[in-house]
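call fold target=SfnB family sulfur acquisition oxidoreductase
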Amino acid sequence: MSENDRRLHREAALVAGRPAPHIPPRRAKAHRIKDDDAAIAVAHELAREFATGAAERDRERRLPIPEIERFSQSGLWAITVPKAYGGAGVSAVTLAEVTAIISAADSSIGQIPQNHFYMVEALRLAGNEEQKKYFFERILDGDRLGNAFTEIGTKTPVDFKTSFRERDGRLLLNGQKFYSTGSLFAHIIVAVARDENGRVHLVFIDRATPGLNLVDDWTSFGQRSTGSGTVTFDDVEMTRFQVVDHDIVFERPTPMGPFAQIIHSAVQVGLARGALAETISYVRAHARPFFELSIEQGYEDPHTIHAVGDVAIRVHAADALLARAGRLLDVAAADPTHETVAAASIAVAEIKALATEVAELAATKLIELGGARSTLESYGLDRYWRNARTHSLHDPVRWKYHHIGNYYLNGLLPPRHGAI
């Protein structure tokens, strides 16, 4: 990309959005969570806090900066750091449950650390010892990693023009990213970039590095406060220490792909739980009986009772599949072979497919059973459907069914990448 092209891209992004918010330096080191039970307990505590104001944040597109600070300072953003480096090293079952608990309260907040956890896993699998010690310690102290992964204007979402090259004795990073979930809240931006040979790497860049620009230009109708906007890199100076090979984690059997996807699956499960809970609360408080019935309350309507029962069964099925996928992912992490990684990938694909359908169903039934008044903007109940639909587009569920069917019918192992 020429200097003029870079300038035009940067100016277009800055005009379209708002400058990134200021993220103050950490005032203290984050709390350190020691085990799985503690992680679950902290997640429940935070979910109660995050549920308050969730509708207003969505309606106003207000970035949850204080909430994210509370989230990472609680220690939950460091729970996947291995025990050998001072972390809790929680199971995939626990990580998925933590994500679902938070997402039931506010799915935007639940999604924001997904790429942070992805990058932590990449460090675990592909970082050298010095990189692990350095970055894991920063994460344990409370630093957040942000994603600068996908680009627009390329043939597919995994085609990357962003690259780093040596010029005049300096290693320089250039490019532009979109869908950069978490970067507006991050202390470290992790860019996916190609080297001189076309190999894909992760580049860890401190937020304040000259030439790095963050733009708040995310305008989707759902997941509105994830801050999933633009990041640009203009001659960002870097070192080889900041580079971790990304291709290598898919060239051999590793749990990287299903690890990425189980977090997305958990966001959908959380959305389904949240929508079901809102349905029960709203129907009991506000729904009126159909005029053909001789009942006193809307929650006595037999069709409403049936619909809530149906959704509850499906949500509980999704809960069970999420836990099952976590257990198989833990097996693959402990013993990564072609077979164990494939089994984990298929199990995660199953829950992602089901949870996507259940979240949208639960969100639709919330409005249907709530009646016309439930559509009032003051309630903000439409956010469940908008968030479920928007988040589901992260990767196509239709391909999940294809790989699941091929696995069971034809014995074909799924491909290894971050979307399966």
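return ok
The beta strands are 18-19, 145-148, 163-167, 170-177, 188-194, 200-206, 212-216, 230-238, 243-245. The chain is about 50% helix and 10% strand.
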